[in-house]
Amino acid sequence: MEAQQVADLINQVSFRPGWEFRADVMADGAPLVIVQALVETVNSDRDQALRGYPEKILLVPEAIIDAAEYVIADDLYTAIFQWIIDLEIHECREFFRVGPDKDAPFHPHRPEGQSAWDAIVREPVAEDAGA
Predict the structure, then answer these.
(1) What is the 3-state secondary structure (H, E, C) of the chain?
(2) Which of 13, 56, 74, 119 reaches 20 to 30 Å from 111, CA-CA?
(3) Distance CA 104, CA 23 (A)
(4) Distance from first CA to last CA of the chain, Å, rounded?
(5) pLDDT confidence of 131, banded at 50, 70, 90?
(6) pTM score of the predicted model
(7) d(Cα 125, Cα 77) in Å, to the nearest integer?
(8) Contacts of 81 (CB under 8 A, 6+ apart)
(9) Does residue 128 have a pLDDT over 60?
(10) In sequence order, which residues have a C-beta less than 8 Å from that of residue 36 and are 6 or more positions away?
């Protein structure tokens, strides 16, 4: 696909309330598109968790994609959807907290949280013996 076509398709994507997508063609002439997800949320830091998450923030994760990798719109939408899933998993890991100290055992920005997450996602899922 052409870069402008990819940007135009992404700019038409809507998701849940508090999410907006923006895409622009990179200026260097390459078939690259910069994509931003603007996500209204709350600060996930531990001190905020202990206070009930009072601080509202705007996250703006970005990705650069090669428009030439997409043949049809559904290919692009699948990639955007997977990016949303990856963003959601990342945020879930930040917000998943345990106990009165609000420990985050899978926090993606801490080495021990990353190691704990890696350990569970690598383990095979046990099959239901009753099935």
Answers:
(1) CCHHHHHHHHCCCCCCCCEEEEEEECCCCCCEEEEEEEEEEECCCHHHHHCCCCCEEEECCEEEEEHHHCCCHHHHHHHHHHHHHHHHHHHHHHHCCECCCCECCCCCCCHHHHHHHHHHHHCCCCCCCCC
(2) 56
(3) 33
(4) 45
(5) very low
(6) 0.85
(7) 28
(8) none
(9) no
(10) 21, 22, 23, 60, 61, 62
